[in-house]
Amino acid sequence: MTKKFKLPDLPYDLSALEPVISGQIMDLHYNKHHATYVLKLNEAMEKYAEAEAKNDLEGMIAQQSAINFNGGGHINHSIFWKNLAPVSKGGGNPPQGNLAKAIQQEFGSLESLIEKLNAKSVAVQGSGWGWLGYSKEKKRLTICTCANQDPLYPKGVFPLLGLDVWEHAYYLQYKNVRADYLKEIWKVVNWSNVAERYEQALK
Fold this sequence. Notes:
By secondary structure, the chain is mainly alpha-helical. It has helices spanning 23-53, 57-62, 64-83, 97-107, 110-122, 171-174, 178-185, 191-202, and strands spanning 128-135, 140-147, 157-164.
């Protein structure tokens, strides 16, 4: 019996990120999209375990795509929800401490990081993610993009801050203008969570 993955608790109310992200988008994004990734991941893991028990290599390989897509969706969104916070809970407050120093060293300023990450994220073709990550090999902050729900870890980069640029993350509110969504989302970025993740990455 494989262990079931679960939808993590949302750390704030569905409407708490308004007006930047509407409660309607959050309801669909969290309760429908993320929940479906978890459901499909569990189904794929069950099928994988059954194939593994039979030593059915073809059956195991057949589940790899579903595990990568839905598992990546689960990992990415679990980070994304905590990367955000209502303004009343510190959302939008600038980074402090070691993270602030690292941003200054790598990008020159927070404004420069935001400009670079937004430019990379807005240019993602189709669906995907923009990331601020920590390269374990280079021991420095880096900006990456991933297609679809591909997780960042296989690139050797620890994910710190993710920007979801799938249309379901913004379309109901910002229509087809991804750049407007990316301009606004910084008002609710939870830099204290990003800083915690940075300290984890350093370890």
